[in-house]
Design brief:
Blueprint: E1 2-4, H1 6-12, H2 15-30, E2 34-36, E3 40-43, E4 49-57, E5 62-70, E6 78-85, E7 92-97, H3 98-117, E8 124-128, H4 132-141, E9 149-153, H5 157-163, E10 165-166, H6 170-174, E11 179-182, E12 201-204, H7 217-222, E13 224-227, H8 230-236, H9 238-245, E14 254-257, H10 258-263, E15 276-279, H11 284-298
Parallel strand pairs: 1-7, 8-9, 8-11, 9-10, 11-12, 12-15, 13-14, 13-15
Antiparallel strand pairs: 2-4, 3-4, 4-5, 5-6, 6-7
Helix pairs in contact: 1-3, 2-3, 2-11, 3-4, 3-11
Length: 299
């Protein structure tokens, strides 16, 4: 059995490789060439959690699971393993560091979505949050757009300054931004519709379950909304569920999956002034695609 450390994941899964991997994985998901169960989350004290994700990629028989602890405020915040099983024998064939895979693939998937949905001339990036995913999103999105200005808002002003132009408020950070990434642990909305410019693209990443939400209902209602995995967002996507329950949107406001946009079967940005949202919960097929690639490099 192969064991892969965080350092090896970092070496073997650069963004320029992972971004197209995520694009292809999400196309496969949207085309029914994968299987996955909804994530299971066990709440722990002090806002911590333990999660399990199971899935399979049917084209090559890869299947496996991710077991991960989520400890907000720690670096890395996600710790655990991605387990791959041998398609021929059913034996456990590899165990990989889940924290590094999660960190890279989450930002890479957002970068792929940004490439598909953001304006081609998008140059200004706003980050709401100062943790690991803020840094990762900055690194990844620079692979798909020429970013000239980065503004940052979060609880830790020093961390914000290390990433870009630190702002006193979220409103100040997102004013005029072309791309906005919400990568916080907020329980209530930190991004309001009236602060978001026409034509902006939003990656909503911080909330990965029903309950905590980063975007207000008005922004969800205003935007063209796309899921990483539609079944997951309809069951566990906090921003979608809250807006639906509040009567701000109808069920069909969720237009479909980002994989459909990647495949060209679903329009993404239709007009220059459209606001677009990519709702990221994270998908086990993203982990499996990344893990499969890493193991292939070692074989």
């Amino acid at each position: 059995m192969i064991r892969v450390s965080a350092e090896e994941v970092e070496r073997l899964l650069p963004y320029q490789t992972c971004i197209p991997l995520m694009r292809e994985a999400m196309i496969a998901l949207s085309q029914g060439r994968t299987r996955q169960l909804l994530r299971q989350i066990l709440d722990l004290p002090e806002g911590r959690a333990f999660g399990a994700m199971l899935g399979a990629m049917l084209d090559d028989g890869v299947f496996g699971a991710k077991l991960v602890s989520v400890y907000p405020g720690h670096d890395p915040s996600h710790q655990g393993v991605v387990a791959l099983f041998d398609a021929a024998t059913g034996a456990l064939s590899a165990m990989l560091d889940a924290g590094a895979i999660t960190a890279i693939r989450t930002a890479a998937a957002s970068a792929a979505a940004t490439d598909a949905l953001a304006g081609k001339d998008a140059r200004r990036l706003a980050l709401l949050g100062t943790g690991e995913q803020a840094r990762r999103h900055l690194e990844a999105i620079r692979h798909v757009r020429h970013i000239e200005r980065v503004t940052v808002w979060g609880r830790d002003f020093e961390k914000a300054k290390a990433l870009g132009e630190a702002c006193a408020t979220a409103e100040e950070a997102v004013a005029g931004a072309d791309i906005i990434c919400t990568v916080s642990a907020a329980a209530e909305p930190i991004l309001r519709s009236e602060w978001v410019a026409d034509g902006a693209h939003v990656n909503a990443v911080g909330s990965s379950r029903a309950g905590p939400r980063e975007l207000d209902d008005a922004l969800v209602a205003r935007a063209r909304l796309f899921a990483d995995h539609e079944e997951g967002v309809r069951a566990q996507g906090a921003e979608f569920l809250h807006a639906l329950e509040a009567g701000a949107i109808e069920a069909d406001h969720l237009l479909g999956e980002i994989g459909e946009v990647f495949a060209g079967t679903l329009p993404g940005r239709v007009a220059q002034g459209d606001v677009t949202i990519y709702k990221s919960l994270g998908s086990i097929v993203q982990d499996l695609a990344a893990a499969r690639h890493i193991v292939a490099q070692l074989g």
